[in-house]
Design a protein that fits this description.
Blueprint: E1 11-13, H1 21-34, E2 37-44, H2 52-60, E3 66-74, H3 78-88, E4 95-99, H4 103-114, H5 124-138, E5 143-146, H6 156-167, E6 175-179, E7 183-184, E8 187-188, H7 191-208, H8 212-218, E9 228-231, H9 246-257, E10 263-267, H10 287-305, H11 312-339, H12 346-369, H13 380-386, H14 390-405
Helix pairs in contact: 1-6, 4-14, 5-14, 7-8, 7-11, 9-10, 10-12, 11-12
Amino acid sequence: MADFHQSGSIATLHNLRTTSTEAMTRELEIFGATRKINLILPSLFSELEGDALPNILTELNKVPYLNKIVIGLDRATEEEYKYAREFFSRLNIKHDILWNDGPRLQTIDKRLKSLNLSPNEPGKGRNVWFCIGYTLAEAEAAAVAVHDCDVVTYDADMLARLVYPVANPAFPYQMSKGFYPRVADGKLNGRVSRLLVSPLLLALKKVVGPRDYLEFLSSFRYPLAGEFAMRTGILPDMRIPSDWGLEIGLLSEAWRNLSPQAVCQVEISDRYDHKHQDLSPEDASKGLSRMSVDICKALYRKMAADGQVLSEEVFRSIKATYYRMALDLIDTYYNDAKMNGLSVDRHAEESAVELFAANIMQAGAVFLENPMETPFIPNWSRVNAADPTILTDMVKAVADDNAQYG
């Protein structure tokens, strides 16, 4: 992937293998001396028992430029929170744990619910949103990175490359998005990005015509990557989706709030693998089936907000066009994989495309039934206006948890 191609819509920052992680780290230390850098880790308790997170912490201990790590801990009992405190104590970097299910942060959530400002459902979006609020409340960091806790191929170079574009004060970027190939165990992975998002964007452009928003999304090599970094100045006005359309929703917010010149994508790894979701064709509320519906709904909502008229007939055309384009892409992916000594299960790929095609229509039906649905969590500017003390109370709640269990 060490090319230098630019699409023209957003900047693509490549890894040309001409500098070292050590050199980039030294620069980040210089930037971090005056412009502090934080990392947000949204984590399920179950990820503490997996193989990926211990290695992530080992790699993070090699990083000298981080000011703080903010860990959002979901689905943890009191005993599990105590265990998590011990687990993360191996970090030699200053860190705070937000026990999202603990009584103190649940009290904060009840205050938000009373104002109709609480996230609608649990999940990564809610976790990241609370961590962003906590970061804003502390008012220390100039830049913040976010990545998942299930990356089994994680190394410190990924973080350095992800955060560098927004940490470097000479660069104009307010947001950077990671990209990489999804290859593991001799297989080509990344099914939702390859088999849903890419052909769906092509189909949308063919059916509704060229739109700047669709061109913007198409510029990203891996729009569903969970690794991104932002300058904290844009965080108060970012609206985080509460469903599984988080990554597409964040890119849509970047499109709404920032100029394309303020957004970049950066190559952070040439070997990436993480936990794989089941396709879950038998249950649309789980796995990649649920994810595909939420991604489609996120796209439809944004297009409608931009003035695009959507109807059942339009969705039928989108589905038919998507299906043909996705099948054509399967041939391309198969040839690409074959040339690189990788395997692709064509039957499984076509089965996924059939499911995604059905879910394109299902998402359209849900959108038409409730076009006024607002799945975005309110931004922190609104929350602070509604309750000016809630951010400081959140910081106190985390400190009190730390004092009680420390």
